[in-house]
Amino acid sequence: MPITNYPFPVVLGISQPMLWIRVTNPATKLAIIALAIVDTGADDCVFPAKSALELGHNLKAVARKPIKTASGTAYAYPHTSRVDILEMRANGMPGNKVLYTIADMPIDFVQGCDAFLLGVGNFLSKFVLTIDYPRQVLSIRKPRKK
To answer: Which of 59, 63, 99, 142 has the fewest CB atoms found within 10 Å of its own CB?
Structure first.
């Protein structure tokens, strides 16, 4: 089902393209809900390392990999998680309705990162994305089959 005219949330007085997501560790079934930035400049999905711990992922169980960030080089600990895109209620808070699910999404959990970034490689490349800045809304849908 396409997501049409999903309003930009306002965080700290700034309106930007973001989605409410629920991230679940498939092994522990632990989940968190967060606002994630739709980041067309990010290669992959990058989430804060502290969220991996909340989900029960063991950061040290995987080899760390260097990644380039706006602040320089950081180290990521990749783990697979389930990501559900949630509806946004009229009050700007997440609803219970799941709009899309990506069951086995690789996520780079990064120490020193404070934001949830939905990047191109393992998230945005699965969708057709339209961002309407004047109206402050975004729309995403699965590509049409040929």
So the answer is: 63
DSSP sequence for 29-73: --EEEEEEEE-TT-SS-EEEHHHHHHHT--GGGS--EEEEETTEE
Compute the distance between CA of residue 56 and CA of residue 80 in angstroms, rounded to an integer.
12
Band of pLDDT at residue 130, cut at 50, 70 and 90: very high
**3-state DSSP call for residue 135?**
coil
- Tokens matching residue 59: 């950061």
- Residues 64-105 have pLDDT tens digits of 888 877 777 888 889 999 999 999 998 889 999 999 999 988
Separation CA 99–CA 122 (nearest Å)? 17
What topology does CATH give the domain 18-141?
Cathepsin D, subunit A; domain 1 (2.40.70)
29 contact partners, CB below 8 Å, separation of at least 6: none
pLDDT tens digits for range 43-70: 889 999 999 999 999 888 888 888 877 7
Q: What is the mean pLDDT of residues 127-143?
A: 94
